[in-house]
Amino acid sequence: MGSFAGNTNGLLVPHTTTDQELIHLTNSLPDKVKVMRLEERLSALGNTIVCNDYVALVHPDLDKETAELVSDVLNVEVFRGVIANQSLVGTYCVLTNQGGLVHPRTTVDELDQLSSLLQLPLTAGTVNRGSPMVAAGLVVNDWTAFCGMETTSTEIQVIESIFKLEGEIGATPASAMHDALIESLG
């Protein structure tokens, strides 16, 4: 997951993506989803970009041209920043259109500034029994989330609350999720 970044508008993949992989991705996604291979030195795009359908926070050292492509392909407003003094914003933050979970050492002031900048409710938290690398243990969208096996019930409650998924993690039968995913790709 650290290799790419995307939302409902587009998918950004690193320069190491082969032509065959690019074609497969393009053919596997709805026509409205743009897929673009980026020539970027910081090629672990999922670690350097965190986004939802409206905004993206990017690594401070991301090339200007790359930041413009992020804006164009994902159709988002792009901001440069850090989270808890960490420049790998995509590692230490997870966003949806409902909210965001950030590194547990994010100060209250930083949290307020980021929340205001991104126009989203944010909360500091962890996954997998205290890991601050929230994106390494959590995949979430606007209707469900999947987290690492070591994630505690308290961490799950925080995740469900900030992403407005009350009672949803693990509550939806696998067949219903499969059907919904297939329907959304159709």
UniProtKB/TrEMBL annotation:
Transmembrane segments: none annotated. InterPro entries: eIF6. GO terms for cellular component: cytoplasm; nucleolus. GO terms for molecular function: ribosomal large subunit binding; translation initiation factor activity. It is found in: Cytoplasm; Nucleus, Nucleolus. It comes from the Eukaryota. The keyword Oxidoreductase does not apply. Keywords: Cytoplasm, Initiation factor, Nucleus, Protein biosynthesis, Ribosome biogenesis. GO terms for biological process: cytosolic ribosome assembly; ribosomal large subunit biogenesis. Binds to the 60S ribosomal subunit and prevents its association with the 40S ribosomal subunit to form the 80S initiation complex in the cytoplasm. May also be involved in ribosome biogenesis. This is Eukaryotic translation initiation factor 6. It comes from Opisthorchis felineus. The lineage of its organism: Eukaryota, Metazoa, Spiralia, Lophotrochozoa, Platyhelminthes.
